[in-house]
Structure prediction request, 114 residues.
Amino acid sequence: MAALLYAAFFAHAAVPQVINYQSRLRTPAGSAITASTKVSFSLYAASTGGSVLWTESYSQPSGVCAKVTPDTNGYFSVQMGSCVAFPATITFTTPLFLGVTVESDAEAIPRIAF
Prediction:
């Protein structure tokens, strides 16, 4: 019976709807960025190169996908997946890497291991 319940539990496991993400924006000189800022996120199966598995951009003037508005120290948080749902093909059971892009800059390196 325990094995049956165990299997049933994992049969209902699903891709998360949202993932909380917090970070800090700073200028190259180290000053906090406090202005409304476009931030984009992408998931990859590789730490470098590879195809994008999912992407989401906080770039709108208002609404759920509005640009991030950091606090006075540059900190912000988003719920990734709230604008663009994670596809069912991403199971979160294999290594994933998060790429973050701020405004029109190149994607930050290194990617963040998930």
Q: What stands out?
A: Residues 2 and 8 are 10 Å apart (CA to CA). The first helix runs from residue 2 to 11. The beta strands are 19-24, 39-44, 52-58, 75-80, 97-102, 112-113. Helices lie at 2-11.
